[in-house]
Design a protein that fits this description.
By secondary structure, the protein is α/β, with parallel strands linked by helices. The chain is built from 12 helices and 10 strands. The two termini are about 30 Å apart. The relative contact order is 0.15.
């Protein structure tokens, strides 16, 4: 990854997680056709990767019960990746059968959160990841990994940085993180080119944390259209950082994303209208209705 004179990467890859991480916490079931239309609109924005859905049990995440229909119903655009979340081997095989060509697994640096979120210990979760990773490797399917609670846990409080680095697998990792020292610790164990940041904005620090990460060389950032999201197993957890706000900040820094900000705001307006809620994007709140982006 080449850098500008400013020291920032010339290009940042934005991974849009709104259709999955954004919608999974909605209390009212979002119609399948609305999910498909949202993904189709996002596919036309220039986003290089859109996390489509989650192949989890509908018992635990009812909002994602239509994962097969969504996966099969979307329009796939050339050059766009469409990863899906797969917690175990059963979910992996269901995802592949539905047409998935890239998958993600997810764990936590907190034992308590791991048990609440995916109903197993950290050690058990890693065993499940290994099963998925092995099957994916045999099929040449890319795998993306998440480690939640990198800085803090709603049940255990602060997390030791070494624990975050310990909970790792030998493929791409995305960290829910808030401070530089966590990333420094992880970078001792995992190549910078294999890292991404995935920030929720619970304390209003997401953009600051993303800026810190890219200043350190991270070139992949997760975000959610309209700032949708939140974890059903983390009390007080608010939405992901808004894709619109991330792109606006990166545009201002002269960093290329290849994403059209206005068309992302249009997609955000579409889903917020469908959900009858206000966007969490500060940029959209300030400029979408006026049609101006300063």
């Amino acid at each position: 990854q080449e850098s500008q004179p400013s020291g920032l990467p010339e290009y940042i890859k934005i991974v849009e997680v709104g259709p999955r991480d954004g919608l999974q916490n909605e209390k009212v079931i979002v119609p399948t056709d609305i999910k498909i239309e949202l993904i189709n609109q996002l596919s036309r924005t220039g986003l290089p990767a859109i996390e489509v859905t989650s192949f989890v049990s509908s018992k635990w995440v009812p909002q994602m019960a239509d994962h097969k229909e969504v996966m099969r119903g979307i329009e796939r655009h050339p050059g766009v990746q469409y990863p899906v979340l797969t917690p175990n081997l059963q979910g992996f095989h269901s995802a592949i059968a539905a047409g998935a060509t890239e998958v993600s697994v997810f764990g936590a640096a907190s034992e308590s959160f791991s048990k609440m979120n995916i109903n197993c210990s950290i050690e058990e979760s890693i065993e499940k990841f290994e099963e998925v990773a092995k099957s994916a490797r045999n099929m040449s399917i890319p795998v993306r990994g998440y480690v939640s609670c990198a800085l803090g846990c709603p049940y255990e409080g602060n997390i030791i940085p070494a624990k975050v680095a310990e909970v790792r697998v030998n493929f791409w990792l995305a960290f829910l993180m808030n401070q530089k020292y966590i990333l420094k610790s992880v970078m001792k164990e995992i190549p910078l080119s294999a890292l991404a940041v995935h920030c929720h904005d619970t304390y209003g620090q997401a953009l600051a944390n993303i800026l810190t990460a890219i200043q350190m060389g991270v070139a992949v950032v997760d975000s959610s259209v309209a700032g949708l999201g939140g974890c059903p197993y983390a009390k007080g957890s608010t939405g992901n950082v808004a894709t619109e706000d991330v792109i606006y900040m990166l545009n201002g820094l002269g960093v290329n994303t290849g994403v059209n900000l206005y068309t992302v705001m249009e997609a955000g307006n579409f889903i917020c209208t469908a959900l009858n809620k206000k966007t969490n994007s500060k940029v959209a709140q300030a400029s979408f209705n006026t049609g101006t982006i300063n």
